[in-house]
């Protein structure tokens, strides 16, 4: 029990207030006259320190109770949960995560990501000859190809945005670099990281068709966008179209088919009728995408001297040229399907391509070519037709 002398002392908080703080020497001189023994002095100081410790604990417990009460009130009122002023706010963290994910989603150009993934899956299915080929080995080889190709896809579209920041401020101000959400340094870091990961994965897989597909895509994608002497091929409409055709129509079809055929299944390379059809049809489609993508971007291209076909020939003329090319491709696909010896393949390919051709023509007639929003929406519709075609290609037999 504390002595009456200790109980009469002021509390630690009182001793620390006033015109100057109490020091240890002042405290000892005031409390211990000369006649108090050293042993008695130690007992009193010990009791005082104990009281100070208890006082501090009580203050901390009171603070904890106040914070807990605040937490309960906030929870009951639906306010964000926090532990006090400046405390942790899970809502803000979640908002930051969503904002970062949305910016990367736009930076990766999701319509190209979806197109790349679907094309590789579709072409890989052309290598399947019997039901037993659909095995864990197939899915492993498919996953290796898709992931490596998507990494390279992000490098290509990201490099294009880094090279086109000023143009995109006019044509696509919602992109992260054009809007200022990403700095140039952030963009460079992303594209560098994804290109390294793509090559690393292609190398450790050990598939030469896959590695060469990545390497050629890297070269063409770099030459297409980067602003260096003898490069930036997108300034030439013909060369730009040839780059897109080479990647989307030839490399994707041939290289990824050979990856499955030779690396996964260990079979000799062959160029089957469905593979030749897929390459020819997607050549038409790739030219259309290369031409059509510039139609809504005519304003920025004119300002920065990009001599696209749209700038040279006008939006309406290029628009209907694209529609004609696609309708011819659908007509050829119907003919190919009609001569198939497989009944289910004949029915599905003829009806499927006839339906897609009809939808294209019906939608094209209603497009307002004076509206950039309408043209952009139709461009996204063409990408949907692109996706749909890759669902039909495996049915061609």
From TrEMBL:
It is found in: Plastid, Chloroplast membrane. GO terms for cellular component: chloroplast membrane. The chain crosses the membrane at residues 137-159, 180-203, 209-226, 238-258, 270-292, 318-337, 373-393. InterPro entries: AtHST-like, UbiA_prenyltransferase, UbiA_sf. CDD domains: PT_UbiA_HPT1. Gene3D superfamilies: UbiA prenyltransferase. It comes from the Eukaryota. Its main location: plastid. Belongs to the UbiA prenyltransferase family. This is Homogentisate phytyltransferase. It comes from Eucalyptus globulus. The lineage of its organism: Eukaryota, Viridiplantae, Streptophyta, Embryophyta, Tracheophyta.
């Amino acid at each position: 029990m504390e002595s009456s002398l200790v109980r009469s002392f002021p509390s630690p908080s009182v001793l620390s207030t006033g015109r100057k703080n109490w020091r240890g020497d002042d405290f000892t001189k005031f409390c211990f006259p000369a006649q108090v023994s050293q042993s008695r002095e130690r007992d009193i100081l010990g009791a005082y320190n104990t009281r100070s410790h208890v006082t501090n604990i009580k203050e901390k417990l009171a603070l904890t109770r106040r914070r807990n009460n605040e937490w309960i009130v906030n929870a009951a009122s639906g306010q964000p949960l926090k532990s006090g002023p400046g405390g942790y706010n899970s809502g803000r963290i979640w908002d930051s995560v969503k904002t970062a994910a949305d910016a990367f989603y736009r930076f990766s150009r999701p319509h190209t990501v979806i197109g790349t993934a679907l094309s590789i899956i579709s072409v890989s299915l052309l290598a399947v000859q019997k039901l037993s080929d659909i095995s864990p080995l197939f899915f492993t080889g498919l996953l290796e190809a898709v992931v490596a190709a998507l990494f390279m896809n992000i490098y290509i579209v990201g490099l294009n945005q880094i090279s086109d920041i000023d143009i995109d401020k006019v044509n696509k101000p919602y992109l992260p670099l054009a809007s200022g959400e990403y700095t140039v340094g952030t963009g460079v870091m992303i594209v560098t990281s994804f290109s390294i990961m793509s090559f690393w994965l292609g190398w450790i897989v050990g598939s030469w068709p896959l590695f060469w597909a990545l390497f050629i895509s890297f070269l063409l994608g770099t030459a297409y966008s980067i602003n260096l002497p003898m490069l930036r091929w997108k300034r030439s409409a013909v060369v730009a179209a040839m780059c897109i055709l080479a990647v989307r129509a030839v490399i994707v079809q041939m290289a990824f088919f050979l990856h499955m055929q030779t690396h996964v299944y260990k079979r000799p390379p062959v160029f089957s009728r469905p593979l030749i059809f897929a390459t020819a049809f997607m050549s038409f489609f790739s030219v259309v995408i290369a031409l059509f993508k510039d139609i809504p971007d005519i304003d920025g291209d004119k300002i920065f001297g990009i001599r696209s076909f749209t700038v040279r020939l006008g939006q309406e003329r290029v628009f209907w040229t694209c529609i004609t090319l696609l309708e011819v491709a659908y007509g050829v696909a119907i003919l190919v399907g009609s001569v198939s010896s497989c009944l289910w393949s004949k029915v599905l390919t003829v009806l499927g391509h006839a339906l897609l051709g009809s939808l294209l023509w019906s939608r094209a007639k209603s497009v307002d070519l004076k509206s950039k929003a309408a043209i952009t929406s139709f461009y996204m519709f063409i990408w949907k037709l692109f996706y749909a075609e890759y669902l039909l290609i495996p049915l061609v037999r």
